[in-house]
Amino acid sequence: MLTKFKSRIKDRPSMAGSTGKGFPKFLAEPRESFPHGVLVTNPQQSSLAQLTAKCMEYVEENLTHHPAILFRNLPAQTAGDFSIIAREIPGKALTYEGGASFRQRIDENIGTYTANNDPDEISIDPHNEMSYSSVFFFCVKEPADGCGGETPLVKNSDLLSSLDPDIVRRFEEKQLRYVCYLPDKSNAEYMNWQHIFDTDNREVVETIAKEQGRNFTWDPSGDLYIWHNRPAFIHHPVTRKKTWFNQATTHHGSYYRLLPGGDKIQENKYPSHTFYGDGSDIEPAVIQHLLATGWSCAVGFKWRKGDLLVLDNLAVQHGRLGFEGDRKLLVYMTN
Ligand SMILES: [Fe+2]
């Protein structure tokens, strides 16, 4: 069901780490039912809602064994169809406020979003979505052949067993620190902390941060750093497997270097940045190792319009190859 193909990724422009050590030459083809393709037969004989309900039963029974399932041939083409699909998905929809990337809300009532609004040419390295358990992608517009836009998928278990054990141990001992930088409005017109928190009162901000279990640091110019430490691992709630689960590379400041004007950002002013939990820098070689290993473990597949991809977000990472031309994916996430 899935077309076999390989996209070259080594030395690819706008892709973090692609010119560095250990980066694979190609994004691998789908393998061993990863992702697990399911062709919907006789799609015209039932309504989209009924078919989706059946697909969700299939997901319920199979997701532990097949943590990435791709449904093809559903009678669905549009954002409106995806709303119908989302309505049939069990579990509570979670909103995306506070996430690292920019998304646009598609359906206010249902909770569907565009997958990512970062510039098309930028590739996004494989990652797990913050704290969601399931992620559903829907293809509204497939990228043309040879134009990129594949979604790389990585099993967290493959990644953990491929990482340098010394580096894994380091993260185990030190954990990770996530820092979010929010300038004062006198220093930045957009995305300043007054705008984000809808207040000029520092005490209000501090109370919210404490409630979220986060720490804060004000710098002399009035800029704000909000930060917290998190383990680099979780235990999967169903399989109980120890799982590499963090955003060490995706939230790392080096990503912003790829964005337009990113080369001008000062090192302490990346919108987000990651450190070891003791506040020390993660060595560039370690970031390179994480990126190169992630892409080495990844498989890609060609999207078709109407595809529905269901991921166990606690077991599978996703990303994006930069693309040219039209390509549109929508996303829905549940707890
Ligand atoms: Fe994502």
From TrEMBL:
Presence of keyword Oxidoreductase: yes
Keywords from the UniProt entry: Oxidoreductase
Chain positions covered by the region annotation Disordered: 1-22
Stretches assigned to the TauD/TfdA-like domain: 48-331
Alphabetized Pfam families for the sequence: TauD
Keyword Kinase: no
Superkingdom assignment: Eukaryota
Name the UniProt record assigns to this protein: TauD/TfdA-like domain-containing protein
Species name: Porites lobata
Highest classification ranks of the organism: Eukaryota, Metazoa, Cnidaria, Anthozoa, Hexacorallia
